[in-house]
Amino acid sequence: MRLAPPDRALGAFACLCGLLGVAASAAAAHIPGADSLKTAAQFLLFHAPAILALVGLGAAGLVRMPLARIAAALLAVGLCLFCGDLSLRALAGHALFPMAAPSGGFALMGGWLLGIVALLVPARA
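^ thats the sequence. predicted structure below, dont judge the formating
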């Protein structure tokens, strides 16, 4: 079993999210009132394994790869928007762009919803 380039990219992104989650957790521990940075760190750490799982399930043929890949990509986009906005607010004092965090939140929910669909629709034999 070999991972296709998009799946390798999603897996690498998930690992980057784990790295950034640890770094943001450490930073939030040293910055007074950095609750939004702490939230961003938690979201990064919670979603990184989900992206890896979707990629792995798809690569193993246990779920439909296109659905798993799109679900993982939605989670990735959602993390960029949601965590990017919260982190910028905490560290730089300004937003990524108006409505970035809510847009990211909706993308995250869409990723989880599509993950449900990917798991419930039987994989092709």
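DSSP finds four helices and no strands in the chain.
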